[in-house]
Amino acid sequence: MGKVMVVASGKGGTGKTMFSVNLGATLAKEGNQVVLVDLDMGLRNLDLYFGLENNVVYDVYDVLTGVCKIKQALIRDKRFHNLYVMASSPNRSDGHLTPLHMKVLCDKLREEFDYVIVDAPSGIDDGLVIAVAGADEAILVVTPDYSSLRDADNIDRQLVDLGIKDRFMVINNVDIELMERGFVPTVSEITDMLKPELIGVIQADQNIRISTNLGVPIVIKDGTYIEETFRNIASRV
């Protein structure tokens, strides 16, 4: 049986989808069967980050509402023989969905995949409740900004209320110079503020932004420090 991980954030712009894409690609490179599910209804981006936007016929909403079978909505990334993507609906039409819908989907996916990564919508709303319904653990993606950290703390409290005991944290877009000059909270200050276990720190790098715009996971290139960072994070999950 595979593991279901939900990737969440307290606000938009933290790099949650970028992280999901590259974590999934890293796990796939290591030989695992991986599927990424975009549950950010109305703000579909996961397929775009893989460069698969033209391959979407059916999406996760079609699966959850019985319009199509699971296999019909799975898009394989040809750069990985064992990585699949299930796109989100381009419309925010999740009013008829319940947490049970998502739990059933996750239970079926975990039978076929080693890792199921759910890219949850940002913030606190019913979308998060649905996204975590079938999850074993959660990864919070934060940036070293006080607004991001406060929102992440609120999300973490909700995750606890929803029964997610295993919660981890990744700090993204870290500018070491700003930290050293005291303009943003340091890593130690962030870990003091938030309860989830820290499993990785990702430095600010314009190459990450370029790769997402090109639809290419940055970890495809071996031997870079970013690829090593994601390998270390993958080993911890």
Structure at a glance:
This protein is of the alpha/beta class and 237 residues long. The protein has 11 helices and 8 strands.
Describe the structure.
Helix content is 39%, strand content 19%. It is built from eleven helices and eight strands. The protein has an eight-stranded mixed beta sheet, sandwiched between helices. Helix 1 packs across helix 11. The longest helix is centred in the middle third of the chain and has 16 residues.
Index terms:
single chain, 237 residues, alpha/beta, eight-stranded mixed sheet, 11 helices, globular
Strand content: 15-25%
**In angstroms, what is the radius of gyration?**
17 Å
Structural class by secondary-structure content:
alpha/beta
Give the low-pLDDT segments. Answer: none
What's the overall average pLDDT, rounded? 93
Helix content: 25-40%
- Order of strands in the sheet with most strands: 3-4-2-5-1-6-7-8
Element order: H for helix, E for strand: EHEHHHEEHEHEHEHHEHH
Helix tally? 11
Oligomeric state of the chains?
A: single chain
Structure summary, number of beta strands: 8
Question: How would you summarize the topology of this molecule?
Answer:
Elements: E1 3-8, H1 16-29, E2 34-38, H2 46-49, H3 60-64, H4 70-73, E3 75-76, E4 83-86, H5 99-109, E5 115-119, H6 126-131, E6 137-142, H7 146-161, E7 166-174, H8 176-180, H9 187-193, E8 197-203, H10 206-214, H11 225-236
Parallel strand pairs: 1-5, 1-6, 2-4, 2-5, 6-7, 7-8
Antiparallel strand pairs: 3-4
Helix pairs in contact: 1-11
